[in-house]
C-alpha cells in the first residue's frame, strides 16, 4: 500500500497522472460559495434567535464550580439555581468525572451565597467544595476587540508579504479570500452545533489562519516555479502549469493535513468527550474544522482562484489562445495517427511538462531590473 501511494505521488509529480482541478474550478468555486452561504445563513439564524452561544467570558455573569461530586448530572444544579433565582436559566456542564460547572447571569452577593449552599446540598458536598466567581463582560469585549485587530493586522501583513515575495498581488488576494472562506465555515460549524465560543475558540480561529496560509504559500511557490517563463513557450498554458503544481504538491498537502489533524482529533475526541475538558474541546474543534477546511481551500480554491485572476490579464489570455490554437493545428496535422494526435495535444505517455530534478529554484523569481 505504501509503495502504491508513493508511486501515485511520483506519477502526480511527473505529470503521468493528473487531476484537472484548475479546469474544473467552477465546480469547486460553487462548493465554496455554497459552504460560505450556508455558514452565513446558520450564523444569521443564530443571531436572529439571540446570538451565538458566547461563553461567560464574553457575556459576563456568575460562575460556580462544584468539585468532588459523585454524580455529574445537570438536574441537581438546575433545581438549586431555580430555588434561589427562578427566572434564571443556568448553563450546566460537566468537567471531568467529578466536577460540575454552572454559569448564570449576574447575581447579587446574597444570591451567590444562597446558590452555593443549595449546590452543596444538591450534590452532597461541603460548601468548601463550591467556588464562585464573577466575570464581567468588559474582559470579553476587550478580548474580542483585540482579536479583530489582530485579524486585520494579520491579513494586511500577509497580503503585503505575499505581494512582495511573489511579486503578484493576485496570489495575495486569492489567499485572503481562501482565509475568509476558512473562517466563515469554521464559525458556521460552531453556530450549527451550538457549542460555546470562548477565548480558547478565538485562539483556535487565529491559529488556523497561520496553518491555512502556510499550506497555500507552499502550493503558490510551486505555481511560481512552474509558470516562470510560461509566455516563452507554446507547449502548455498558464492554467495547465498551475494545475501541475497543485498535483505535484497534493501528496504533501495530504500528508501534512493527516499529521496535523490526528493529534487535534485526539485532543477533541479523547480530551473533550472522554475527559470532559471544556477548554480543550473549544480550541480543538476550531483547529480540527479549520485545518480540514484550510487543506481543502489551499488546493481547490486558492490556486484555481489565482488562475482565474491571472487569466484576466491580456498576455496570459492571448498566450492561452495561442497555445490552444497551435495544439489544435498539431492534432489536425496528425490526422488518424492516434499516438501522434495524443502527443501533439500534449497528453501522450511520454509528454511531461516538468521532470523531477528540473526545479527552477531561484530562477523562478522574476528578475529585478538593475538601476541605470
Automatic annotation (TrEMBL):
One Pfam family named in its UniProt record: SecD_SecF_C
Keywords: Cell membrane, Membrane, Protein transport, Translocation, Transmembrane, Transmembrane helix, Transport
Cellular-component GO terms for this entry: plasma membrane
Transmembrane regions listed in the UniProt entry: 27-48, 147-166, 173-193, 199-220, 258-277, 283-302
Chain segments carrying region Disordered: 346-372
Main subcellular location of this protein, as a coarse class: membrane
Protein export membrane protein SecD/SecF C-terminal domain ranges (all copies): 126-311
One GO biological process term: protein transport by the Sec complex
Compartments in which it is found: Cell membrane
Quaternary structure and interacting proteins, as annotated: Forms a complex with SecD. Part of the essential Sec protein translocation apparatus which comprises SecA, SecYEG and auxiliary proteins SecDF. Other proteins may also be involved.
Similarity-based family: Belongs to the SecD/SecF family. SecF subfamily.
Name recorded for this polypeptide: Protein-export membrane protein SecF
Organism of this sequence: Cellulosimicrobium funkei
Classification of source organism: Bacteria, Bacillati, Actinomycetota, Actinomycetes, Micrococcales
